[in-house]
Design a protein that fits this description.
Elements lengths: L2 H10 L2 H14 L3 H12 L6 E5 L5 H8 L4 E6 L2 H14 L5 E5 L2 H4 L6 E7 L8 H9 L2 E10 L3 H16 L11 H10 L2 E9 L2 E8 L2
Parallel strand pairs: 1-2, 1-4, 2-3, 4-5
Antiparallel strand pairs: 5-7, 6-7
This protein binds S-adenosylmethionine (SAM).
S-adenosylmethionine (SAM) binds next to β2.
């Protein structure tokens, strides 16, 4: 992975953005898509399982699933500011013995990351140019469940994305967002040995949860 992606991620997912996320989480709890994912995972019976959250941001999925009884979590994130906030929440919740953090690009760090029972990616694939590489590498880390949240691939989201990319270009920020084909991503997860168990919509997002089938 290029430095361009991670340097761009650092400047977009910065201290200010991390604090904004923290304030919203404290005030309202998890956002709608995160809550759907947490509720769906909880219904699967996840007590004692391990979690790998890729691009975990300030760590909402991890904190919430630890409350639901998972054994431990590992977060891999390309933003130091987000990791710092996730760690401060961890200290506040006294969950230091259950949480691990890896800073960097998941694809670069992947060879040193072991398999986990659950792998989650919320709003990460849309930050990543090569969805196939990200999905292939991340599904290989999931022993039981794979769950990801991504933008719908309609004309409207593609047009909004073009405007967003223009904004980054004008701001001279190398970071870019991507709308990948929903069918291509779903087919790839299935090809990699998973069966989709739930598929929910919360405009403009899709929340898909898969269970290992072979
Ligand atoms: C839009 S934020 C989503 C954060 C969180 N999952 C949420 O939904 O609130 C994208 C997150 O993915 C991280 N990220 C983007 N590309 C990444 C990569 N290649 N490896 C690891 N983290 C990445 C960013 O640093 C950021 O924390």
């Amino acid at each position: 992975m290029t430095c361009i992606h991670c340097c761009g991620a650092e400047s977009i997912f910065d201290k200010k953005e991390a604090q904004k996320n923290l304030k919203a989480y404290r005030k309202k709890g998890p956002n709608k898509t995160t809550q759907i994912l947490i509720d769906t995972m909880s219904k699967q019976g996840i007590e004692g399982l391990t979690l790998l959250d890729i691009g975990g941001g300030i760590g909402v999925i991890q904190h919430e699933l630890i409350k639901k009884g998972i054994a431990n979590s590992t977060d891999v994130d390309a933003s130091t500011s987000y990791i710092e906030v996730a760690k401060s929440l961890m200290r506040e919740n006294k969950t230091e013995d259950k949480m691990n953090f890896i800073y960097g690009d998941f694809i670069d760090a992947s060879s040193s990351i072991q398999q986990h029972d659950i792998v989650t990616l919320e709003r990460v694939v849309c930050c990543y140019p090569d969805a196939k590489a990200l999905i292939n590498e991340s599904t290989s880390k999931a022993k039981q469940y794979y769950a990801f949240i991504y933008p719908m691939d309609t004309f409207l989201s593609k047009t909004s994305n073009k405007l967003l990319r223009l904004y980054f270009f004008l701001k001279r920020n190398p970071f870019r967002t991507f709308i990948h084909s929903e069918k291509m991503m779903n087919d790839l997860v299935v090809e990699n040995g998973f069966k989709r168990v739930t598929h929910e919509k919360a405009f403009p997002w899709r929340i898909s949860v898969y269970k290992k089938s072979r």
